[in-house]
Design goal:
single chain, 232 residues, 5 strands
């Protein structure tokens, strides 16, 4: 979450336009007027429109402001605000809240499956179910999509799928990769070790449940069971 994203995007877009102006100016070898020299921009020059997208893929819904007005401190007098808004331009961000998008069926590309995975990211059991319900697709994910999924799931180090080369292209069986990740965390005692360590360091049980949920990306119900099982 970035609560100053509107201002941050304004800066990015402004720098992009400034860069365009500078590149145009360095290429200009024609005779120019005084005003054009002052602005470093010729009267007939035109900039390419800049469109900035904010791609947010956390499972928690975006709760920050989506425009500049939402960041400003306004008067309690609405009449004064109305006057200010005539002269203070607003700036809206183009937000894609990927973890909370509706109507995923409208996507006709791999994005439909990838965005669906993002929405299951906070609950590993549901994620595995989502993957297994779409085995035909996820058993042969292309290499590029696989790396995107690893990034979105924050599993760059843990998610290890064997990339099989087929007809010059690399594919990954995501079903097996995620099952291996789940089994490694649950069956091989990683959860047990984490819970016991948290207990030994005097962490409260509720805080331990939250830590286990975040670390292993499992549901609260599963985390409560694991903490209860290993809490000494």
């Amino acid at each position: 979450m970035h609560y100053a994203m509107s201002v941050r995007n304004m800066l990015y877009d402004s720098l992009s336009y400034v860069g365009q102006i500078q590149r145009m100016w360095t290429k200009n070898v024609e005779k120019i007027s005084t005003a054009e020299f002052l602005s470093k921009f010729r009267k007939d020059d035109r900039l390419i429109p800049v469109l900035t997208l904010v791609f947010y893929y956390d499972v928690d819904q975006w709760d920050g402001s989506k425009d500049l007005y939402g960041m400003l401190q306004w008067s309690e007098d609405e009449k004064k605000n109305a006057v200010l808004k005539e002269y203070v331009p607003n700036y809206r961000i183009n937000l894609i809240d990927a973890g909370n998008l509706e109507h995923l069926e409208r996507f006709k590309s791999d994005l439909q499956e990838v965005l669906g995975m993002i929405q299951c990211r906070g609950d590993k059991e549901n994620l595995l179910k989502y993957i297994n319900d779409r085995k035909e697709y996820f058993q042969n994910v292309d290499e590029e999509t696989y790396y995107v999924i690893r990034e979105f799931l924050h599993s760059e180090r843990m998610l290890k799928g064997n990339i099989e080369k087929s007809q010059g292209k690399g594919t990954v069986d995501m079903c097996k990769a995620l099952e291996d990740l789940y089994n490694e965390g649950i069956e091989c005692g990683m959860v047990k070790g984490v819970v016991e360590t948290l207990h030994d360091f005097g962490v409260e049980k509720e805080a331990a449940i939250q830590r286990v949920m975040q670390k292993f990306e499992i549901s609260r119900e599963q985390a409560e069971k694991d903490v209860e099982s290993y809490w000494r």
